[in-house]
Amino acid sequence: MLTKVIEQSKIDHFTKWFDRADRIVIVSHVAPDGDAIGSSLGLWHFLESQGKTVNVIVPNAFPDFLKWMPGAKDILLYDRYADFADKLINEADIICCLDFNTLKRIDNLAVPVEAASGRKILIDHHLHPDNFCSITISHPEISSTSELVFRLICRMGYFEDITREAAECIYTGMMTDTGGFTYNSNNREIYFIISELLSKGIDKDEIYRKVYNTYSESRLRLMGYVLYSKMRVYKDCNAAMISLTKDEQSKFDYIKGDSEGFVNIPLSIKNVIFSAFLREDTEKKMIKISLRSVGDFPCNKVAAEFFNGGGHLNASGGEFFGTMEEAEKLFEQALEKYRPLLTAKK
Ligand code: 5GP
Ligand code: MN
Hints:
Elements: H1 8-20, E1 23-28, H2 34-49, E2 53-58, E3 76-77, H3 82-91, E4 94-98, H4 110-115, E5 119-124, E6 135-138, H5 145-155, H6 164-176, H7 188-198, H8 204-212, H9 217-230, E7 232-234, E8 239-244, H10 246-251, E9 274-281, E10 286-293, H11 299-307, E11 310-311, E12 315-320, H12 324-343
Helix pairs in contact: 2-5, 2-6, 5-6, 6-7, 6-8
């Protein structure tokens, strides 16, 4: 049995909307990750199975390693089909906002979502959600939005209607937001849910291979290059940083997703508890910052204070407008400031 994480009043409230709704739109955050796509498609499969007309809309493209997911081909990208998406959002009875806590995280998609007259529900696990939905299901203690979607469907009484396809999407989100169940994954109920998903016929080993073992040769060479030549280890701060410029990306035929997970690698060095990955984003002309930590070091605080960002305790990010050298310097300043916390003896 699962603990009743989501308040009963919210389940009842959403059920009321759901019974009367016909057209539903699901939106998720920019640069969608496995949990954004997994939770959106998991919910999409379920709602479709109940005879609703459902569309998933995300601000921009998602990585190739998620394209195998059942339903992925039908996801609308807002940066390509804004007019059509605007119409769907306008006409929706319900708009489900998944895996983000503030409208800023959905880029231009925020404009039609904010203006829409449909009822809005937030299902998310990031800290401090803004108040832009009538129902806010926000549980930072839960490791993925996909898990929350599973819990919501079950609490509404529809476990039986979860198909293998929906289960595959939900599992993918749970797996990717916990690094294959290697962090944020000590809640034993996660494993109960996995067992339930397995009962739907998912092949979890195959899902792992499809997500993590389908990279290109150039990605692997890029990884070799950054680890050998670009990784700086700050032993005195128990931290590390990797940066990747535009020129380096073109040298390795970089495509979106090629540096996915790089930020985690330095954490496998003994004593390194804080890691940063800085990448020049050619589209947006800024430096995208990814931060990861282990234990209780709050990388979301560093993201907010230095890089105009935020996120979770152990996984956060932000943006920097300026040169790579300036971004690197700023990260080093952050290390100086946080040195006491980084070097505190446990
Ligand atoms: P990633 O490093 O995978 O891009 O992002 C990890 C987490 O950091 C995301 O799930 C999100 O919570 C947070 N995050 C990443 N970039 C930003 C940003 O620019 N602003 C905010 N507020 N959070 C971010
Ligand atoms: Mn998530």
